[in-house]
Design a protein that fits this description.
Elements: E1 5-6, E2 12-14, E3 19-26, E4 29-36, H1 37-44, H2 51-60, H3 62-74, E5 84-85
Helix pairs in contact: 1-2
Protein name: DUF1488 domain-containing protein
Length: 89
C-alpha cells in the first residue's frame, strides 16, 4: 500500500447518483472518489437496494475498495470532473 495516499474514514451516500463518495488525499491534494451502487454490488457479489445497506457493505469492503482507488489514483484515471470512479479492474 502506498503511504502517500491517505483515506480518511469518511463516506457519504449520494441518493441522486446512487453512489458512495469518499475522499482520498495525495500529497496534500483532496481527491473525490465515487463508487456506484452497481460496482459495489458487483464487488460484494450481491444486490444492494438502498443507501444504508450500501454504506454497511462499503465499510465491510473498505480495504479492497481503497486498494482499487489507490491503483486508479496512481494511474491518474480521473474522470472529466476530476474524480476517481471506482470500478473493478
Amino acid at each position: 500500500m502506498n503511504q502517500s495516499i491517505l483515506f480518511p474514514d469518511i463516506q457519504d451516500w449520494d441518493e441522486e447518483n446512487q453512489s458512495i463518495t469518499f475522499p482520498a488525499q495525495q500529497s496534500g491534494a483532496l481527491i473525490e472518489c465515487v463508487m456506484s451502487i452497481e460496482e459495489l454490488s458487483r464487488l460484494a457479489g450481491k444486490e444492494i437496494e438502498e443507501g444504508d445497506q450500501a454504506l454497511v457493505i462499503f465499510s465491510e469492503l473498505r480495504f479492497d475498495i481503497e486498494e482499487l482507488a489507490e491503483e486508479l489514483i496512481e494511474e491518474e484515471e480521473y474522470d472529466s470532473s476530476n474524480r476517481i470512479q471506482i470500478k473493478m479492474l
